[in-house]
Amino acid sequence: MLEEKIEKIKEDALAEIAAVESLAELNDLRIKFLGRKSEFTNILKSLKDLTEQERKIVGQIANATKIEVESVLAAKEKELKEKSFDFAAEKIDVTMPAKKLQRGHLHPLTKIQNELEDIFTSMGFEIADGPEVETEFYNFDALNIPKNHPARDKWDTFWLKNNKQQTTDDLPTGQAGKQQERILLRTHTSPVQIRFMQTHTPPFRIIAPGKCFRNEATDATHEHSFYQFEALMVGDDVNVGNFKFIAQEFFSKFFKKEINVRLRPSYFPFTEPSFEFDISCTVCGGEGCPSCKGGGWLEVGGAGMVNQAVFEAAGYPRGKYQGFAWGFGLERLLMMRNKINDIRLFHSGDKRFTDQF
Ligand code: DAH
């Protein structure tokens, strides 16, 4: 009788499933008892040969059996899976430190430039800009450094090939008629002075930070590419006292301590009189220590009262205005504040260096 056969299959299946110990064996049993070639499937296929009444009864039993075996299979599968789960391997150590996120950050030179801009804008200065590829006129002639003048030797220059045939319109004021303007990589930020004055009328105060280039061998204090910072304040009666005050204010804010400024006579073609300016040693405050080699002062940059020839080159009448200008290297300033001993580190691309800022 089919009912008995089904009952037997069920008993065998349940017994064998209960004894199984691995998922693979369980899968074999599923095929054995319910698979396409199993005795059970054959019985289901033969139902069509029964009378309708018989088919109804046997069909119901077969269905109930299938559901029961399937549910026992599922329960066993769950049990085996849980047993084989390797908790040790899946353990999460919540006390383990997280992997450190590598975040990018601004280059130390960009940071110091932002800092300087903040200090100067808080003192009413505007920020001016100029091109890194300059003409000979802006970089030299207009700054009172004429062609063939020995003063040009102070700036070792990268001259560029100028393939552009210039029209008279391209040439700066007062240069009309010349056919080919020589171009170069600016050797200092001072050309921005001229560019700004050509389009503005005093009074004004500006700063112009930017990249400069010199055709010279590099060592611990010299780079072929570096940053400078120009300041220019022009009005009817701007004087050296104004310069000294603003310089002192700026350096005190930058070094976060009281700083004194000292002027020494010097020479720059674009200023008259010209100074080198020093600041009181940021380590000892001026008493003398190894940082300042005992002298109490640190050399910072050049400055002076704008030469009237420069005003004239920018289009202002001679003798109408007075102003001061100063310029210094950004790297040098950061080297002083952060005790960095080699300027070449800034462009070395060495993350061990930049990550310290
Ligand atoms: N341009 C000068 C240089 O690169 C630095 C300098 C000196 C700028 C005196 C000035 C200044 O504005 O007044 O060597």
Overview of the structural elements:
The structure is a single chain. This protein has 357 residues and is of the alpha+beta class. The chain folds into two domains: 2-88; 108-354, BirA Bifunctional Protein, domain 2 (2-Layer Sandwich). Helix content is 39%, strand content 18%. It contains twelve helices and ten strands. The chain has helices at residues 2-19, 23-34, 39-46, 52-84, 87-90, 108-122, 136-139, 191-199, 240-255, 308-313, 330-338, 351-354, and strands spanning 126-127, 133-135, 159-160, 183-185, 204-213, 225-235, 261-266, 271-280, 297-306, 322-329. The chain has a seven-stranded mixed sheet. Strands 2-4-3 form a three-stranded antiparallel sheet. The longest helix is centred in the N-terminal third of the chain and has 33 residues, at 52-84. The chain is rod-shaped and about 130 Å long. The relative contact order is 0.10. The mean pLDDT is 90. The structure holds 3,4-dihydroxyphenylalanine (DAH). 3,4-dihydroxyphenylalanine binds at residues 188, 190, 230, 268, 271, 302-304, 325-327.
